[in-house]
Amino acid sequence: MSRDVAFTSRLDALVAWGQKNSLWPMPYGTACCGIEFMSVMGPKYDLARFGAEVARFSPRQADLLVVAGTITEKMAPVITRIYQQMLEPKYVISMGACASSGGFYRAYHVLQGVDKVIPVDVYIPGCPPTPEAVMDGIMALQRMIATHQPRPWKDNWKNPYEQT
Amino acid sequence: MNKLETLKQNLAGKFKIENYKFIHAVGDDVLEVPKEDVPALLLYLRESGQFDFLMDVCGVDYPNREKRFDVVYHLFSSKDSSRLRVKAQVGENESIGTVLPAWKGADWFEREAYDMFGIKFDGHPNLRRILTHHQFVGHPLRKDYDANLQQPCTSSLPIHFNNEPGSPGDVLNDKYVPLNIGPAHTAMHGTLRVMAEMDGETIVRCNNEIGYLHRCFEKMAETHPYNQVIPYTDRLNYCSAPMNNIGYCKAVERLLGVEIPPKAQAMRVILAELSRIIDHTIAIGTGAMDLGALTSFFYMFGLREQVYGLFEKLCGARLTVSMTRVGGMAQDAPEGWFDEVLALCKEIRKGTDEMASMVLDNKIFILRTKNVCPVSAQDAIQWGYTGPLLRASGVNLDLRKAKPYYGYDALDFDVPVGTTGDIYDRYLVRFEEMRQSVRIIEQVCKNVPGGDYTIRDKGIVLPEKKDVYGNIEGLMNHFMLIIKGLRPPVGEVYDATEAANGELGFYLVSDGSANPYRLKVRPPCFAIYQSYPTVVKGAMLADAIATVASMNLIAGELDR
Asked: Which keywords fit this entry according to its UniProt record (chain B) (predicted)?
């Protein structure tokens, strides 16, 4: 009976549709933004509605790294290794002022933006961002995946700590 | 006879007190001594029972002085809740004896003073960097270190252990398996790192490393005017941000010698107790999650969101509210806010009871937590525990009762005290504290005093916006305060409040300028977490995870 139904799509569009609706975020919550990200996961805002359901704390099982919180110089080698361990395709959201630029910590031990060590796809402003802003960021990333936006920052990335 | 005279008599004959200076300033008792006497003096003060807590050790840098550093010890007595500050001067190339024989809790505080200032402590077995990374050069809290001089770190330290007497230090034993947990690990709450040597499932020895979230709070405070430090304090313990605001503002107000109006006090009490509730919800929710119960997390966050809603109505922000100002509150509560708080109290009470039955009566939870890694009262005091963890160990100490502020003495509430100090007791105490906080909020909300929400001293508080835009005097006052900054008199003060995790102390040194000369935070979980390797030694790995969760470690205040 269903033989009469034809379903046409380009394969890459179909794959992108699947990818965008099944993001598996790995919350890298180091500070205040981590707590706010837990709120986004929590009952009121419920990130699951956006197909970003299963928070995985293993880089091998996640395709979206949510950097939620300040990254210090001491933490930078760790997050770089975590990013490297993630499998392709992988995306990075920088949540909040600290992760995006160091925030108001122009200080000796704070990395002035996580994009100094790993490539970032979406920056979410706020200190910490409201849950609504986080959802907006995730939807922005979903649009990027669906429309195959080129991500040159990712292709040009080199691990700053690579031993040569 | 005041405390200082008694102390003078007690010390006479035992120490050369003619070299000592006994000072009473801004309400604090201060004792200045030569550095050679410090270890013996502090040991005597503890053993004679005059002061049983070492709350904090910190350094202060005076680059132009002959002996550059002050090493400051904050002592506290749980008997009469009196405090004593012992200060000793140390030169750049000199060292001072460690007070580890008197208090185990001096360990990390001395390491921090070494890391931040380069002050060497003789006899300290592990005098290595604690907050900054291992490739860091120099000591950042010295006045000649630029706040914005970042130093990249290229690697993480391998597994390492403490050099306690009789232990092999960093040398690993072939028989045991080295295991690294964190800093990016579910159970390690983001930035904690635990390194263990395992014999099967049993921890033979263990070490923890911190500093992965060292955001230089104290350096930032030194480079910002007093009111601009308030947002930074928000981000210390970000689970209960208003309490940090209150603690900081209270310290500055004491240095200024001003008292805030009754309405501001009432609002601060309400904010603080709401924060205590949401802090405990996170501690319990994530704690249960670390034991495998996801439901509690969702349940607790439902409750937390409702409190966030109230914060949002009050000031527009959810997590980092920055609601207090030096001299009072930033703005008045909106119409009907106190009634909404009262309405929420009913929900919190109901929710707390439901959660308590869900968690505390759960057989799995009981089996995982009862008699697991208990801490005795003596040990807790030795390590410098405060707050729910100290009370779970059976010590009845709550600053709201021992040294009441903001009218807590007029309120009717109980301080829950545990017996064994195991993990179950810690949660039990937290649940009961939530109920008591609801009681406090209801009493305060039912009769909020009228009047202003802030003092109106033009040198301290900005005028209201209608004056700034409406008349020239208001505009001038606004400009003057913004340009000149509020300037407390020269002096120093240590002020503590009972935060959700325990005693949150602010040691503030003012040189009369618009920025604090030195601001040292005494974070409650810093003292608690340093006991962790000892507490979990010989326990199972899974119990160690449960212990981390029950300590409610907030990296923001741990690493600052």
From this structure: Cell inner membrane, Cell membrane, Membrane, Multifunctional enzyme, NAD, Quinone, Translocase, Transport
